[in-house]
Design brief:
Layout: H1 3-19, E1 29-33, H2 40-47, E2 60-63, H3 70-73, E3 78-83, E4 86-100, E5 106-112, E6 117-123, E7 130-133, H4 144-147, H5 154-162
Parallel strand pairs: 1-3
Antiparallel strand pairs: 1-7, 2-5, 3-4, 4-5, 4-6
Amino acid sequence: MTPTGQLAKATIRAKLFTRRGLSMTKCVHLIKLNVGSETVADLKNWQSEKRAKAPDGNPRHLTRMWPKREIDLLKGGSIYWVIKGFLQCRQRILRLDEIIGQDGIRRCAIVLDPEIILTTSVKKRPFQGWRYLEPNRAPVDLARRFSEEPTLPPSLAGALADIGVI
């Protein structure tokens, strides 16, 4: 394909993304189930363990798949954690590191900001792997003053969010 043809194809792709409300220049987020944690505090405790940290001390999440939208994730994306069926918090993605395991398999280490930001609670069905989340569909962060208060049980927070209280 000629350079002119490549440019035309890229322009058409950009127009299609724009019509769908997407942008080729903004960030994208991930949604990930956090299996094994009952609360956000459990997630914090797990991430404080040595095995859950990158060499620089930041928490990381290992996965076998490498995100296809890596560039968009690194433009300010976050990983939104689903705990006990409810999306409850997020962490900013700092970088993606390549890890080769003892078995020789390439893995992706999603290195995260240690700060866990509480969000409004959103009910999520179980799924495998991760899902991409466009910024306009991301739940709102709770005010920092709420992060110091005890968290509501996920089912109660979800019910309150459904009726618009939180």
